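Sequence in, structure out.
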Amino acid sequence: MKNVAIVLAGGSGKRMNSDIKKQFMLLNDKPLISHSLEIFEKSNIITDVILISSPEDMEYCADEIVRRGGFNKVRAVVAGGRERYNSVMAGLDQIEISGGADYVFIHDGARPFVTEDMIERLYEDVRKTEASVAAVKSKDTVKISNTADYVVSTPNRELTWIIQTPQVFAYSLAKEAYDKLKEEEDGLPCQGIHVTDDAMVVETWTDHKVRLVEGSYENIKVTTPEDMDIAETIIKRRINL
């Protein structure tokens, strides 16, 4: 099996209020992006990694992250696009150039706490379903609002999930969905469609169902300075276990 991880590290990190992009900020003396790359490097399931970077950071990623970190599974550092989905497209295109894959694991590099166990759970599930996404049950009540911020409905909390990454798909399914998205990309603003994750692409442009698989409440996405504080607490606790 050829299982490729697309790791997204092209964000600007504006909400971090820092001159350093969040993916390069140090967490336990290592760049944030290196933590997830380490897990994919160790995993017996992942055979290849495609690292997506902003165009201006490609050389830095290749030299300071990949080579210095000894990430031998990283086969290419690829320039990302304007939107997240453009970056995923670039990763899928690189996989096609490299001969395709059986399954693709799409992961936000700003989630440093993905684990080998999580990868194994997702892999076991995706071989049955072809579309498996890491997620956790919502601990809070969720409200649906209208554009004026008035409550419209309250979903059953037992049925609400917080979506995470990795999001894992049969490569052929992901490529089909993203190819269809690319064909309709220019019309997305007029349709009011804002693509926020890969599951949404598969849900919208194919008839395939997406299954939710247990992730972890520690599998946070570092977006703000407060998130970095939480990440430091998590990693200190893990070190002391």
